[in-house]
Amino acid sequence: MSSATVTPILAAKGLVKRFGRVVALDNADFELNPGEILAVIGDNGAGKSTLIKTLSGAMIPDAGEITLEGKPVHFHSPMAARAAGIETVYQTLALSPALSIADNMFMGRERRRAGILGKYFRALDKKAMEDFARQKLSDLGLLTIQNIKQPVETLSGGQRQGVAVARAAAFGSRVVILDEPTAALGVKESRKVLDLILELRGRGLPIVLISHNMPHVFEVADRIHIHRLGRRAALINPKDYTMSDAVAIMTGAMAPPADAGRAA
Amino acid sequence: MSDNNTQSQDFESGLQGSHSEVASFEDTDRSLLKRIQHALHVNPALIPLFILLLSIIIFGVILGDRFFSPFSLTLILQQVSIVGIVAAAQTLVILTAGIDLSVGAIMVLSSVVMGQFAFRYGLPPEIAVLCGFLVGGLCGMINGLLVAFVRLPPFIVTLGMWQIVLATNFLYSANETIRSQDIEAQAPILQFFGESIRFGGAVFTYGVIAMVALVFILNYVLNNTAWGRHVYAIGDDAEAAKLSGVRVRRMQVSVYTLGGLICALAGWVLIGRIGSVSPTAGQFTNIESITAVVIGGISLFGGRGSILGTLFGALIVGVFGLGLRLIGTDPQWTYLLIGVLIIGAVALDQWIRRVSA
User: Fold this and answer.
1) pTM of the entire structure?
2) Judged by CB atoms within 8 Å, which residues 229-258 of B form the interface with A?
């Protein structure tokens, strides 16, 4: 695809974010096209967390513009980004361990029962939420559920990741951002999560994948955004470059290609 | 999941033929102990309920009719009604991983305001009661604002408020007690919760009914409304709750404010129980409320426990108190046993938490 004809679903231009004297984002650009998996890689301290936080509403940039489907947006909180259809799976997963899978999936957006019970007694529609959660998890071919009321802390790491991803997929209508989804997982569970990511793309949901794991990135990404020194050093197609090229650009050992930012 | 979108990597070839049910939920082969641990994890009020029933049976066997009579058993309810109501407020705060040391002081100040506004300023007693609730809610809200927005530890905030509110209470009331006869003559509504319904020997004061009703209402709210689930979520992991879209600060302010209002209710019930308005009443209510909460199986680390457990915890303390008094032991035995129960309850909580491992 060529970036000249496609309107990016989520884009940013000239983002700046300073923390005191530290410049975390220095005129950074960003572009996510419809239906693609865009990997974001970068060394520690390159500013990719800050970039993601500004896109997901967790941080407000000092300067620069973010556009969603071509229209400028200003997210002042993660809630605002979520309302616009951008869901983020944080590295910490943001799940409440003692609460059930269904409780967690609907945390902050619970459904109330119809009628007087819901209106005046604010009763939650537990059955509908449990059915929905069960449906979403099995849709993703993820879990063979015995008990959707099970507390999240009784699940394995991969299962928890699955719940968090399913939550994002269920509510993320435009973009899903995944922050290091495989960092804490074993080989087998990582495979499950990668399959899940491809499954989401198969449904047309664009994904931003932040990862340190080069094999994972090169396997699933359609394009790779390489972040270095607070800005986008290059935007490459994984088919044209090797993993060592990517690492070299990321660390500054290799000059970014001349068409950086325009590739693929 | 199908293989068609999977181009697995070389090193993953070793996975072929391995178990693929990564995410199944089957629980096979659980020992009895594990099953008990799981049951307690799901229903944290079971243990205090068990201890409550057991202690009632034991004292009933030892003391016979003196203890096991409608009169004695409802007397226990009357004796724990104040602590039970305050402990309900304490439960809400502790579920958010906070603590409120000022509950007893807020209760007393509210009762003093109700009394003094009616007698010193001659306000209609109904308005005076309303003012008491206002003061209670305000104290709670200050706690909440300091915890949520100034980000001070709840222990410190409420330790300070405890002293401030108690001192205000003594300064404002000038240590003056309003006599029971005066209240009865001029503002009987202040003693409303002292009135009672009798069935044979059983005496249910309105205060007892208020305590039980309050606990059941809060139990519904905590389990069946978004607000209630958010209380648990904050106590469990505030950061996760925030990222999931829970407005943590607003929740904290609302929890402490509601706690203050419930303490004001306790202040009103207190007037009914002792008849008079006394600025020196309820000195130990804050510690007693924490005791009831802990024995009731609520985790001091937040996010776990059922408010029904708190009711059982308060009743356990009441049963031990009355039972041992009827037996005629030194009252210190009551404190000693309560101490053992507290430590036992916390040890049990730690064990239940390990269910995740």
Assistant:
1) 0.87
2) 229-230, 232-233, 236-237, 239-241, 243-246
